[in-house]
């Protein structure tokens, strides 16, 4: 039971805000291992193209500033004849032109990519 206003505040929040540090609740901090969290890097699944971080913008006064040139990535569902199914890939527009010219089998063979690991 909470009898006073201060004790009621402590009971309501669940934290001993006005108590000394030794009396405060010690809750263990759960940390996530860095290996379990992974972000997919923005690369082309077929060609392996990634961003160009060494590009420069040149102003009228010839001041040079760094800029990042990103890859034009598209999420595409492509028909794979040999596997008789669709494969979902994140490919650059250059890779799409390569696929249009040679077909997905020859393009994957050219860049040494196993299409079986891309599932729908």
Automatic annotation (TrEMBL):
UniProt record, GO biological process: translation
Extent of the signal sequence: 1-17
GO molecular function, one term: structural constituent of ribosome
SUPFAM superfamilies assigned to the protein according to its UniProt record, in alphabetical order: L28p-like
Keywords: Ribonucleoprotein, Ribosomal protein, Signal
GO cellular component: ribonucleoprotein complex; ribosome
Short name of any one Pfam family annotated for the protein: Ribosomal_L28
The organism's place on the tree of life at top rank: Eukaryota
Family membership noted in the UniProt record: Belongs to the bacterial ribosomal protein bL28 family.
Protein name according to UniProt: Large ribosomal subunit protein bL28c
Provenance organism: Aureoumbra lagunensis
Classification of source organism: Eukaryota, Sar, Stramenopiles, Ochrophyta, Pelagophyceae
């Amino acid at each position: 039971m909470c009898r006073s206003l201060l004790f009621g505040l402590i009971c309501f929040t669940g934290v001993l805000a006005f108590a000394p540090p030794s009396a405060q609740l010690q809750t263990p901090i759960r940390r996530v291992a860095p290996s379990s969290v992974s972000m997919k890097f923005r690369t082309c699944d077929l060609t392996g193209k990634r961003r160009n971080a060494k590009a420069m913008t040149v102003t009228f006064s010839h001041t040079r500033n760094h800029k990042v040139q990103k890859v034009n990535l598209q999420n595409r569902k492509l028909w794979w004849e040999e596997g008789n199914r669709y494969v979902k890939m994140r490919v650059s527009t250059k890779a799409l032109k390569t696929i249009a010219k040679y077909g997905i089998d020859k393009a994957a063979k050219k860049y040494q990519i196993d299409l079986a690991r891309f599932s729908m």
